Protein 1
Amino acid sequence: MHKKRVFSGVQPTGNLHLGNYLGAIKNFVDLQNKFECIYCIVDLHAITNKQNPKELKSNILETVASFIASGLNPEKNIIFNQASVSAHSELAWVFNCVARIGWMNRMTQFKEKAGANKENASVGLMVYPNLMAADILIYKATHVPVGEDQKQHLELTRDIAKKFNNDFKCGEYFPIVEPLIPKEISRVMSLRDGKKKMSKSEDSDQSRINLKDDKDLIDQKIKKAKTDNDSIPSEINGLKNRNEATNLISIYASINNVKIDKVLKEFGGKNFSTFKSKLSESIIEKICPIGKQIKKLMDDEKYLHKVLEKGSKKADILAKHNLKEIYDIIGLAKFS
Ligand code: TYM
């Protein structure tokens, strides 16, 4: 039996949004009181796409600031950046040799991110899920809070763990991880198109609520958010094939910690303009204090560096210990 341990990661690509918050970070905060948690700023994942070095440095700090501003306690959790703990990359290489090319070819996120010009994508982008498996398994983490878009990568992590355990006949050395995906909203969708995920890479800023957006901007984005002409249904069945309506109702449920049925009972039969003003209020109440705190923390880079330094040292001890065991299982040794 493995000790319960939570691991998750967020890319430092700047401007975290409501999707990152409701899909992942909100859950990170809830879990900190129940488990031992390790939260990583996955800077090595970010460089699978071209980054501006100056912006990357600042985005790494802003991601730490966003974690803390959202309620993560750096004294209670290990908060660190991936590049500080070299065992992630070392285990990723091992997993490059465990995972099969066919497995990589099935990854939908690679296909989406590489787009039409697959030949021109970085090799790193293709083997990205192996690094993700290494992030988790170097700590033998058992639970991974993520949004639904990461589910396939976690299935791959399970396959890698099983193949490694099997190939090297090492029992259940690596745990078979459990994804923790939020129930009320597993995928926050774009405010402009209910079929697309809310994402930083979407051109229109109107498609997302950023954690640093101010009150007026949030209000304006929600007012303009796409809906349909029908009123709000009283039962879940009435949301069928209504992607935009489902998205807004689910955001409201998640941000207020209530079930979707309860929201429908409250607003069923009403039109969207009444609902939207309540939705804006809820988002503003939750997100604006986080945005203000991010900006404040960004003025204290020294503090943010200290958090990373402390977290990285703790993570490095755990990771080095496990890497030694892993190398030994494989028949490798480190003489330096
Ligand atoms: P990233 O940086 O794209 O997103 C960070 C977290 O936010 C969630 N998320 C969403 N959830 C719901 N709706 C959305 N629209 C939405 N957009 C983003 C993501 O699911 C994620 O949980 N590969 C990962 C980072 C990673 C990782 C790991 C995660 C690297 N190593 C190990 C877990 C464990 C990624 O790119 O997430």
Protein 2
Amino acid sequence: MTSSLTGYAPSEGTLPPRAAFASDAPVLSLNGAWRFRWSPSVHEVAEGFEEPWFDDSAWAILPVPSHWQLHGYGAPWYTNSPYPFPVDPPHVPDENPTGEYRLTFRAPSWSGRTILRFDGVDSFFTVWLDGHRLGWATGSRLPSEFDVTELVRPGADHVLAVRVHQWSAGSYLEDQDMWWLSGIFRDVSLVARPVGSADDFAVHADYDGGLGTLRVDVDGAARVLVPSLGVDAAAGEEIAVGPVEPWSAESPRLYDGELVTESERIRLRIGFRRVEIRDGVLTVNGTRVLFRGVNRHEFHPDRGRAVTRQDMLDDVLLMKRHNLTAVRTSHYPPHPYFLELCDEYGLYVVDECDVETHGFVYEDWRGNPSGDERWRPAYLDRMARMVERDKNHPSVIMWSLGNEAGAGANLAAMYAWAKERDPSRPVHYEGDPSCSDVYSRMYASHAEVDEIGRGEGKPFVLCEYAHAMGNGPGGLRDYQDLFERHERCQGGFVWEWIDHGIRTRDASGREYYGYGGDFGERFHGGNFVADGLVFPDRTPSPGLVELKKVVEPLRLTWGERLIVANLHEVLDTSRYAFRWTLTDDGAEVASGTLAVPVVAAGGQVDVELPALPETAGEGWLTVSAVLAADTPWAAAGHEVAWGQVCVREAPVAAPAAAPVGSPGAARLDPVTGRLAGLGGLDVTGAALDVWRAPIDNDASGMATLAATWRDLGLDRMTHRTDAVRADGDALVVETRVAPAARTFALRAVYRWTPAGDDAVHLALGVTPEGDWPADVPLPRLGVVLELPARYDRVTWFGCGPGEAYPDSRTAARVGRFHRGVDELQTPYVYPQENGHRTDVRSAFVHAADGSGLAVDGAAVFGLTVRRWTTADLEEARHHAELRPRDRVFVTLDLAQHGLGSASCGPGTLPAYRLAVEPAEFAVTLRYRPAVNSG
Ligand code: IPT
């Protein structure tokens, strides 16, 4: 046993790979409650456990499919690229957690052959039926089948015994950036193969110039039926089916058919389409494709990679509702049901093989299995098992050899095999251009993408970009501009879809999402595992909301008239209804629908706007394109795209009469110059603040900016009041704000002027002093005010409703919004700066009784309101650790530095950097008493 566990061969006793399909032949699911025993070492297995007479009555019960680590056996372990065991291929340590599974089942009465199928077991398993050893297999995310015809007796009880090891030679090929989670994590079934049935078949459904051709190759005699096309033909025959609607991600037309043998009817879901690289451009049905894609790992916060059908459907629906069109199945073939969903709902799939040897990068790729021919059978086996299983899915438009496996002859062999076996699909591999039909890169900067776009060669895709870790990514809009500008740049796949946070509890029972190091791992990759566009519970993060807007398939802009540009590749605009609303200082004053002529894919049209009433204040017209009727993935009314235009600038306020001081308005400390109260309000502060709790894109992974900031001392600025003096009726406070050990500073001068009853006007001027290091931006520039905790609601007029930052603000629209303070927080798995609302004109932070602090900006400002300090946010390691204080902290920002995606990729683009330079800011602060207090 131990020798095969650490040998180079991929399996023993398994059947040749074949297509996954559904038919009317019976299948018995063996999912459910299995007897289970776990041991921490390969040496502590139960003797005789595979024998039918073995007494397992004292064993625990474990659900199949599942990961044992998520049911109390061993623990989840996260490493990014380093192997979690000594690198000495193909050997693994004796500390090799092992799970033994037993199931007694009653064999159904069916004739023909019987096959035992495992859809996924991590990482090495040996199978016995009634004590007979059937064989063993590796390749965790690939199916393995055993022929049990000779052993299974209809109606009799049988004992299935499976021994699974966490580590094996196979683990060297499975070094993906994710949790190490083991066990039988996908379905187990007993499949009937009636006499005369087909075991495997390949559907070739081609499309060219409006016409379809169909051929289904089968290993036996069969007929192909597609009633809606009038097809009734022999398998193997090339059928000209005439005019068909092609399949594409936007219009996933499937034709239902059947493959009929003497003993079985197999369901066919046929999509006619042609994938081709033409003149350096990747096309589907002759049309250039722009991937609006994501990298999807299979993940659920309680189930790990043992995802349910509902989890898979949730992903697909969320993707479709966020305007995504493509998925890279990073970095292994998904559960086969996911591909059925992609066929049906319409997503292009880059189906990636279960191969990653990233840990060899630390040895400069010396000893990499990809270049060692002893591993060749394992590489080819994995490729064949993926291609054969998934070959009949129209959604799969490219094969991918794997991820981060260096270069080597084994990858070249996989590539050659795939080209030979399936010439209809291009092959992708990022690590070695000689094994790839497209030019694929990860995390290339905007400048480099631009340069590649100007060049010639293979179609260019970013198989990973815009690292969505924590707050971010920034710069999505700028990437999309390049994809739209250069024909060669065919989009990409954001890294990644979901945060792999595991739901867990602290000592006091409070729930939080665990990441690397939270499960006792002494060697781990920390929170680098939480870098998705949706939170672990699949709540969309602001990054996904931004991506949805950036990749929207219609663009609504303004010239003289409304311009509707259709960026769809296939669809015209007939599925959309266009609605408009007019707001006056954020309040809706008129609305209607707009008649927009149907625009073909790629076209655009100008539309006359309705006559709009005059607004008294700032007027904004919003036009949104919503689904006119239900689709399979969203209901009528779902907003797909929108645009906004300012139809009336904010009227310039009449110059205020000379401000008059009123007793009881602002109370300023005569020594510090700080605010100590305003009217009836306990509001304090207004100290200048440059610090933000570093985001992952400042501090994690490859990001170094936070370290520079801390080195300069921007996280510990001190304040000194140099003067508090009267100037007419104004009070002028001169301060110097600077870090310890440094000579540079910011001079901040506050000018407080009475502004009528209960109001004060603050004008703040900030001037850098001394030698600030060149090219280091400030994290933020703002002032912080504090209020009692009961002021926990915010109404603002500005951009919203979600958080926004300089390079991630496409999805923020101008409006009037209302949120509770708690709703303003974005619960990043690892706490960091969040919740900033941008371009705020006015805000009211108030209590339930309607009293509160109104803030009116002379110009727009940034707004952040939270129940904790920046230091609290910086200190916390999990969102659940944050404890509300008895104050509410209101930050009014002059500006924030952008987000970038430097945790893995480029930093903030120059246009979104917060330079150290003179700045000015002015707001009026007003106390508003309770509405019902008389
Ligand atoms: C890249 C990996 O392909 C991906 O799996 C993930 O680990 C990502 O990094 C970071 O989250 S590889 C890296 C060397 C760019």
